[in-house]
Amino acid sequence: MARGHQKFQSQQKNAKKQAEIKKSKGHDQKAAAKAALVYTCTVCRTQMPDPKTFKQHFESKHPKSPMPPELAGVEV
């Protein structure tokens, strides 16, 4: 076991190493994926990444519901 000054140095070195690992890891995939889901279905509250997917979803899942105004000019 390390004692005294050697233990302190080891702790400092380990803390620095852990900080570098945490800093390099940085990118959170769940947060990025959640940020990409910007369109929300008004009927079932499902989130979609783009208007094309949103329109396809709406036409297949909710054919009897009126089309939302944000999907009026979207090409499929």
Automatic annotation (TrEMBL):
Keywords: Cytoplasm, Metal-binding, Nucleus, Repressor, Translation regulation, Zinc, Zinc-finger. Residues 1-30, 54-76 are annotated as: Disordered. GO terms for biological process: regulation of translation. It is found in: Cytoplasm; Nucleus. Residues 39-61 form the C2H2-type domain. It comes from the Eukaryota. Residues 1-37 form the Small EDRK-rich factor-like N-terminal domain. InterPro entries: MBS1/2-like (IPR045230), SERF-like_N (IPR007513), ZNF706/At2g23090_sf (IPR026939), Znf_C2H2_type (IPR013087). One of its GO terms (molecular function) is zinc ion binding. Residues 17-30 have a biased composition (Basic and acidic residues). The keyword Zinc-finger applies. One of its GO terms (cellular component) is nucleus. PANTHER family: GEO09665P1-RELATED (PTHR21213), HSPC038 PROTEIN (PTHR21213:SF32). This is Zinc finger protein 706. It comes from Acanthochromis polyacanthus (spiny chromis).
